[in-house]
């Protein structure tokens, strides 16, 4: 897996990702402490609102940002967004009112909503070989999981010698180093083939996404992932400390076990995907999530929760990690930022539904009813994914073009059969506005 780090451009981008993630992790810890200082016992409500603002920014800003990204070189855009995030983190220690947290968090997350899809869309252009790209996806998954483990430990160690306000400085440094690493390499910036209006550019990614059967299946899988993930992220503390009467260290261990399951699958997944289709792996992972979420309704003790959380982590990684391969396969290079932005927005829209549901249903009806509710959502999503994403999903599709002149150069692409039809790698674009029906 680490062989892809021999590519200098990818190595610098991966380092930028890891360092920015660590900075974000420190920010999360510091923000919680700041909220407690400003709001006391209402800190949970403040953080909950901040989390909702984050999701709204992700859902609303990503497609718009991708439309403007076409007008800028990718490297310049990524560096500018890192600098914006560093600037926001620089202001956070001076916040004195709760509303100021909300404003700064929106700006920070809006910048992240523009940064992440653009960054993700750059990697397949840097690593055009599918095996290398698959390994890069697994490394990215590992980076996210390690951040969730390392950042709290690093923050705890730093808080023994500095105040939490100084954690914001660590975040600033993280974003600045990330920007410097991006500056140190030359990034491809495919240009759109034709000029497009702002509406076309804003909606293009979502239109491509919803017109592609495998991506409609991916959207359903996103919902299964969000349902199971919300159970773990929102309710682990409730299970461990309220239901089982344990302490914060036990909560941290449970979350670490969840991350450990995810990391283990991320390590073995590249080799696994060499021998099984993406659809098989992702549906299997999503099915594991649905079943495990249902089992969570009857957890008798902490000793049972830990292996179940490990299994959920494994299913989480298997269902989610290959998604980048589907997005790459379903778009031209110039459309990838828009398509990755659509995935970013639509997947976070799923979280925007399941996060509050996991919290409200758990508080109102109890953990068992909450788990059953989320399991029903996950199970329904798996069934929808299996239906929306055909089992036979070839990359090369035979199709016709009604009204396309015989002399059009597009007829020279792929293999023609002499019956006004030809076959090539099929993606939704200006010449292919809908998916052809199976013959």
From TrEMBL:
**Which keywords does this Swiss-Prot/TrEMBL entry list?**
Cell membrane, Membrane, Transmembrane, Transmembrane helix, Transport
Domain Major facilitator superfamily (MFS) profile spans what residues? 9-439
Pfam families, sorted: MFS_1 (PF07690)
Mind listing the GO molecular function terms for this protein?
A: transmembrane transporter activity
Specify the protein's topology with respect to the membrane. Multi-pass membrane protein
Subcellular location(s): the record lists: Cell membrane
Q: What is this protein called?
A: MFS transporter
Q: Which parts of the chain span the membrane according to its record?
A: 12-36, 42-64, 168-187, 217-240, 252-269, 281-302, 339-358, 364-389
Q: Which InterPro entries match?
A: MFS, MFS_dom, MFS_trans_sf
One GO cellular component term of this record is: plasma membrane
């Amino acid at each position: 897996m680490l062989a892809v780090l021999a590519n200098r451009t990818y190595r610098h981008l991966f380092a930028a990702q890891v360092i920015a993630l660590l900075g974000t992790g420190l920010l999360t810890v510091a923000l919680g402490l700041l909220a407690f200082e400003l709001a006391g016992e209402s800190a949970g409500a403040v953080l909950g609102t901040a989390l909702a603002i984050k999701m709204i920014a992700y859902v609303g800003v990503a497609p718009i940002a991708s439309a403007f990204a076409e007008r800028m070189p990718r490297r310049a855009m990524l560096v500018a967004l890192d600098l914006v995030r560093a600037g926001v983190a620089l202001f956070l220690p001076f916040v004195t009112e709760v509303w100021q947290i909300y404003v700064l968090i929106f700006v920070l997350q809006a910048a992240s909503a523009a940064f992440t899809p653009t960054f993700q869309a750059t990697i397949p252009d840097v690593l055009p070989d599918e095996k290398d790209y698959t390994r890069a996806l697994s490394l990215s998954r590992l980076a996210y999981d390690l951040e969730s483990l390392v950042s709290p430990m690093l923050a705890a160690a730093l808080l023994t010698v500095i105040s939490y306000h100084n954690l914001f400085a660590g975040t600033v440094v993280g974003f600045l180093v990330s920007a410097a690493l991006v500056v140190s390499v030359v990034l491809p910036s495919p240009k759109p083939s034709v000029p497009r209006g702002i509406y076309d550019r804003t909606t293009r990614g979502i239109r491509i996404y919803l017109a592609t059967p495998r991506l409609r299946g991916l959207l359903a899988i996103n919902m299964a992932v969000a349902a199971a993930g919300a159970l773990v992220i929102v309710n682990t503390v409730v299970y461990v400390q309220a239901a089982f009467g344990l302490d914060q260290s036990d909560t941290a261990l449970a979350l670490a076990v969840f991350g450990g399951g995810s990391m283990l699958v991320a390590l073995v997944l590249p080799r696994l995907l060499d021998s099984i289709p993406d659809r098989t792996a992702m549906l299997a992972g999503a099915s594991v999530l649905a079943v495990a979420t249902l089992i969570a309704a009857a957890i008798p003790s902490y000793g049972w929760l830990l292996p179940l959380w490990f299994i959920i982590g494994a299913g989480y990684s298997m269902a989610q990690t290959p998604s980048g391969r589907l997005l790459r396969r379903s778009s031209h290079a110039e459309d990838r930022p828009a398509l990755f932005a659509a995935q970013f927005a639509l997947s976070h829209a799923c979280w925007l539904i399941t996060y509050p549901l996991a919290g409200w249903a758990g508080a109102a009806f109890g953990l068992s009813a909450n788990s059953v509710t989320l399991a029903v959502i996950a199970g329904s999503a798996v069934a929808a994914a299996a239906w929306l994403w055909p089992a036979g999903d070839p990359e090369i599709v035979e199709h016709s073009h009604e009204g396309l002149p015989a002399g059009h150069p597009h007829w020279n692409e792929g293999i023609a059969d002499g019956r006004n039809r030809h076959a090539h790698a099929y993606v939704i674009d200006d010449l292919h506005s809908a998916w052809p029906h199976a013959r």
